[in-house]
Structure to design on (262 residues):
């Protein structure tokens, strides 16, 4: 009976997941090694970011490798931009955004945060929604959290994806700003000055100017199936995050969880 109940739960979850879920979701894993990260804007060793989740974002024949993890009070982001091999000092830029309530608002509100860093910089910029000025989609700059770290530079000799020098970025984002959740709205973009192109996730968003941030309604989601969640009353339901994880991993075959053989 127990095995049957588990099977029924898995089937129900599979049926409830929308068909677009896979293409608009990124998995983030819990790691126990993030406190060892050295924020120098590169793979300090070839194992440094290995115990993180990995998304290969493909744009025609070019790639951005996005690695994410959470540990303790922080979310960790590595953007390994092998498609950008031209150094444009403080012009190439990564933007990572979180809709902390995942309310898909048509106008950026106070629970929406974006974190930015340009190549050659060792200090990032944080913007928050809720501004009455609509020029930048209602985002405004705020004072950086003292524990926010962002660095962008040129890749080093330990890079796992390409030995050709290219741009790479590291971030540590305090969860205190966002609040804890198993699902956030999520947006990622990379502006490449040499080609004057903006590469986005979700892909296909229309960006008219380098600093433009789409409205949260157009963002995808970042999901942490192994993150601590509020407990359910029925013991079997405590297994639901694991079931969701299995289903998502099977449906997101491009994702690799915990292990990266490349």
């Amino acid at each position: 009976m127990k095995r049957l109940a588990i099977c029924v739960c898995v089937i129900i979850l599979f049926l409830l997941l929308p068909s677009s879920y896979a293409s608009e979701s990124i998995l983030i894993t819990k790691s126990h090694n993030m406190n060892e990260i050295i924020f120098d804007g590169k793979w300090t060793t070839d194992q440094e970011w290995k115990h993180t989740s990995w998304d290969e974002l493909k744009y025609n024949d070019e790639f951005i490798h996005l690695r994410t993890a959470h540990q303790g009070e922080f979310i960790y982001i590595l953007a390994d931009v092998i498609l950008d091999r031209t150094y444009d000092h403080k012009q190439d830029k990564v933007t990572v955004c979180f809709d902390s309530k995942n309310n898909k608002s048509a106008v950026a509100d106070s629970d929406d945060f974006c974190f930015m860093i340009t190549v050659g910089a060792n200090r990032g910029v944080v913007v928050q929604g809720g501004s009455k000025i609509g020029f930048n989609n209602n985002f405004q700059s705020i004072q950086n959290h003292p524990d926010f770290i962002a660095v962008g530079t040129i890749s080093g000799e330990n890079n796992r994806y390409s030995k050709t020098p290219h741009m790479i970025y590291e971030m540590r984002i305090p969860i205190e700003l966002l609040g804890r959740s198993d699902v956030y709205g999520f947006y990622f973009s990379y502006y490449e000055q040499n080609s004057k192109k903006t590469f986005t996730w979700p892909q296909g968003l229309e960006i008219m100017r380098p600093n433009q941030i789409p409205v949260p309604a157009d963002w995808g989601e970042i999901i942490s199936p192994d993150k601590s969640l509020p407990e359910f009353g029925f013991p079997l339901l405590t297994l639901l995050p694991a079931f969701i994880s299995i289903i998502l991993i099977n449906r997101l075959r491009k994702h690799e969880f915990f292990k990266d053989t490349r």
Q: What stands out?
A: The radius of gyration is 18 Å. Residues 2-22, 228-240, 252-259 have pLDDT under 50 and may be disordered. Residues 230 and 238 are 9 Å apart (CA to CA). The first strand starts at residue 25 and ends at 27.
